[in-house]
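hey can u check if this looks right to u? its 204 residues, i copy pasted from the old doc so theres a chance i mangled smth
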Amino acid sequence: MSAAGPSQGAKAPSGGSAAHEVASVGVGGMGGRHVVVMGVAGCGKSVVGEGIARELGLPLIEGDDFHPPRNIQKMQQGIALTDEDRADWLQTLRHRLASCTGGAVLTCSALKAAYRDILRTAVPEVYFVHLVISQAESLRRVAGRGAGHFYPPSLVASQFEALQDPAGERHVLVLDAARPLASLAPQAVQWLWSQRGLEKDSEI
């Protein structure tokens, strides 16, 4: 961590298996970094999470892969999950993060502050990348997934109702996910390096 201290609600600079290795762990000295890519349905968590994991050489944990069958069934039926429904799921994700001692990138909606606080107990430092989109854009993207996806467009509104803005919390980067998703992972990686007080080029 740089002498300036942790970032709080930082804005971005311009410019198969449930958990799998994207590249060799800790490329360029970023081992031990735990990152959660969060946001509402359709914001691009999987795409951006995979990009960050690949760039940093860390395992990618897809949070949706760990939902118990009862949660999947509820969502398929158009029933929004409750705090109780998410409790065991969040504990599972917390344990997965904690088990990745060399660092990891987790995709998880992490809508409420209490959910994020659970994930923060996994390791001493957890960094959140919040992908922000409008409700209309979220609905458009979720509707475009097709009938095969378990999450229906009818639940999009419930995500925005549950969302508690993490801006101002410890170690949070906010990114505009209406922009091309391919541009977001590099911005997140740049921010993560700035949090360590290092220049990426000096480590390669």
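Residues 138 and 163 are 13 Å apart (CA to CA).
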